[in-house]
Amino acid sequence: MLFLQYNNFTIFTFQHLHKSTIVETVESNLTPSILIVDSDRNITSLLEGNLRSEGYRVVTVSQAEDALVLSLETFHLVITEIKLPGEIDGFELLERMKEDRMTRHIPVLFCTELDSENSIIAGLNAGADDYVTKPFSLREFMARVRSVLRRHRNFAPIKTVRTIEYRTLILNVDSRGLIIDGDAISLSPTEFTILTHLLRERNKLFTREEIYSTAWPGESMNNPRLVDVNISRLRKKLGNYGQNIVNRSVLGYGFMDVV
């Protein structure tokens, strides 16, 4: 276990397991986390790369429904398109955040195709902290991001976020959320518990009995196939990472680096 302290603001706890990392972060306003909500991969890749190059932690989702299953209170800024796929657009996402006492302090920056004067006025009147229309100057956009964060640096509370990370897979222990390649993945409580158990001790095999006792604590293992069924569903949801969950005869299941 390694503890690092940076300017008395940020503490990281790392447990290295080859390429996976268990991270506990106490975040301050000097290390902002930014959420991008946009279905345009060209835009999200551009913003993500530039924001990360300036030291920000960035999470990207394609629609508001995915954003709302995350712990929004852990972010310092939300950048969202107004025109989004799904039932919820950027205006409604902003409205929901302002109605929740845990997220009403978080600034929202609209980065959108809607460039009419009426749209800009509507966005600012709705409570957006800034409004940028596409296409935009990247230098100006980054300056606006820094400006919004400066204005809000005294309002966001310090928060603790615990994640388990493996390459592009991020498992948020606190919000019980999963993100793969920037996309939010929905897991059942049982699937989340099993995946957490396997990722915490990667490259180790667990018997069905051990997994069952973790996923269904206090219950007798009347049906061991429950473990198999849930892991099968979990593999499908993990996409390419599903192949990392292996089953060794007699020995059990494990999340492995080498398949």
Present the secondary structure layout.
Blueprint: E1 2-6, E2 10-17, E3 20-27, E4 33-37, H1 41-53, E5 57-61, H2 64-68, E6 77-80, H3 90-99, E7 108-112, H4 117-126, E8 130-133, H5 138-152, E9 159-166, E10 169-172, E11 177-180, E12 183-185, H6 189-200, H7 208-215, H8 225-237, E13 245-248, E14 252-255
Parallel strand pairs: 4-5, 4-6, 6-7, 7-8
Antiparallel strand pairs: 1-2, 2-3, 3-9, 9-10, 10-11, 11-12, 13-14
Helix pairs in contact: 6-8
Describe the protein.
- The chain is α/β, with parallel strands linked by helices.
- Helix content is 33%, strand content 27%.
- It is built from eight helices and 14 strands.
- The longest helix is centred in the middle third of the chain and has 15 residues, at 138-152.
- The two termini are 27 Å apart.
